[in-house]
Structures are given as structure tokens and as C-alpha cells.
Design brief:
The chain is mostly helical. The chain is about 85% helix and about 0% strand.
Length: about 260
């Protein structure tokens, strides 16, 4: 126990040291280049709180968060359906491998955002659709790989007790896919926050990306860095807080023993 506590303490101090060094370098470059080109850490933090405390500031954060959640959730549903179906239906498997997955992976997300804007105009739909297109491949490939790693003996044993395929899928197959789906959820969620910026710039009248666009148009570099800090804070909170907590409390019990040991 003492060894574990010592490792945790060392990791915390190393993280704090790295953060202090990063801030000092940032401060030095800001003084060297001038605040007009690179705001100092203090100016960035002030802009961060100023933007969030401004009227409707949190509304823009909520709009972006809502689009990310909806887009990632729909991308998860689509990706999981195609990933599972590709294992059982050969035609779907061929379509996923040769058309759907390569198409979603090869076309840049910014191109999809522009297409959706041309189709649907400036509203909340283009950013959501852009996130769906960006996140769905993660769920397709992770579910696909998970289906290949299924314990076939366990599935066959379940088939001897019931002929209901949906029950086997819900009770046996899906729990074994939880670690793969969780990994896809984490990757898809992180990518969604990177996609939402250009998607909202080109296809929305609200959201954090839209506010970055306004700050850029007004040559207000403090606000650009302030909104960038808001994005970073959200990603760090979910990566080290929410996803780590879910992994420890709920996901690890579904992992194979050899993965837990590793």
C-alpha cells in the first residue's frame, strides 16, 4: 500500500512540475513575442472567465456540449449496429469493409461539414451530422474487432439454453463488447470536441466554435485563447475524471483476466 501511495504521490508531483514548466515557458514566450501575438497565461485565464461569465456565455458551452453528446451517441448507435451486423451478415460486412468505413475515414470532416451546410443551412444539424460521421468509424472498427474476439464457446453454450438470438446478443455478446465500446466512446468523444470547432464555424450561429470564429473576426486573440482554454478544460475533465472513473468502476470488470493483469 505504501508503494502504491508513493507512486501516486510521485506522479502528482511530476504532473505539477510539468505544468509549472509549461506555464513558465508560455509566460516567457508571451513576454518575448508580446501579448498582441501570444497572451500570457493570466490574460488567457481572465479571458476564459470573462467569456463564460458574459451573458449567454454558458449557453454557447451548453450548445456545443449538447451537439457533442447527441452526435457521439448517434454515431455510437450507427457504428455498433454496423459493427455487429458485419459479423453476422456477409453483405453488410463487405459493405462496411469496402465502402462505408473507407468512405467515412478518407473524407476530411471539414468537407462533410461544408456539404451538410449546403444541404441544411446554418443551424445545429450540420455540426451534429459532422460529429456522427467523425465518431461512427471508431465504433465500427472497435465493435468489429470485439466481435472477432468473442468467446465462441460461451456463445454456443448460451445457444443450447435458448434459441432467442436477441437475448443472447443482449445477455452474452454485448457485455463482452463493453470494453471495446467504451474505448470507442472515449476516442469518439475526444474527436467530437475537435470536430465541433470547424463544424460550428461553418455551420452554426451558436456554440463555442462559433464564438471562436467571432473572436477571430474581431482580431481578439485573448478571447480565442480563452475559448481554447475552455475546450482544454472540458477535455481534461472528461478524460482524467469521467472516463477514468467509469473505467475503474464499471468497465474493468468486463475485461478479460489477461487484460486486467496487463
Amino acid at each position: 500500500m505504501q508503494g502504491i501511495n508513493r507512486k501516486v504521490s510521485t506522479k502528482i508531483w511530476q504532473t505539477l512540475l510539468a505544468l509549472v514548466v509549461f506555464v513558465l515557458i508560455w509566460w516567457f514566450l508571451s513576454a518575448l513575442m508580446g501579448a498582441k501575438f501570444l497572451p500570457s497565461p493570466l490574460q488567457t485565464v481572465e479571458a476564459f472567465f470573462r467569456r463564460l461569465s458574459a451573458p449567454y456565455g454558458m449557453n454557447h458551452v451548453w450548445d456545443s456540449f449538447y451537439r457533442v453528446i447527441v452526435g457521439t451517441s448517434l454515431g455510437a448507435i450507427i457504428g455498433i449496429v454496423f459493427g455487429v451486423a458485419s459479423h453476422y451478415i456477409k453483405v453488410v460486412g463487405v459493405a462496411v469493409r469496402s465502402v462505408i468505413f473507407p468512405l467515412l475515414q478518407s473524407v476530411p470532416t471539414i468537407c462533410w461539414a461544408l456539404i451538410f451546410v449546403l444541404w441544411l443551412g446554418f443551424n445545429g444539424a450540420p455540426p451534429i451530422l459532422s460529429i456522427i460521421v467523425a465518431s461512427a468509424p471508431f465504433f465500427i472498427i472497435n465493435t468489429w474487432e470485439g466481435m472477432k474476439e468473442l468467446d465462441t464457446n460461451l456463445v454456443e453454450m448460451a445457444s443450447s439454453y435458448t434459441r432467442r438470438s436477441l437475448k443472447i446478443l443482449r445477455k452474452i455478446v454485448m457485455p463482452m463488447l463493453y470494453p471495446y465500446i467504451f474505448a470507442a466512446s472515449k476516442s469518439g468523444f475526444m474527436i467530437a470536441w475537435k470536430v465541433i470547432i470547424p463544424a460550428e464555424i461553418f455551420g452554426a450561429h451558436s456554440g463555442m466554435g462559433y464564438m471562436v470564429h467571432l473572436a477571430y473576426g474581431a482580431f481578439n486573440i485573448d478571447d480565442v485563447f480563452g475559448w481554447a482554454l475552455a475546450f482544454a478544460a472540458i477535455l481534461i475533465f472528461f478524460d482524467y475524471g469521467v472516463f477514468n472513473f467509469i473505467d475503474r468502476k464499471f468497465v474493468r470488470k468486463w475485461k478479460p483476466l489477461e487484460l486486467k493483469r496487463s
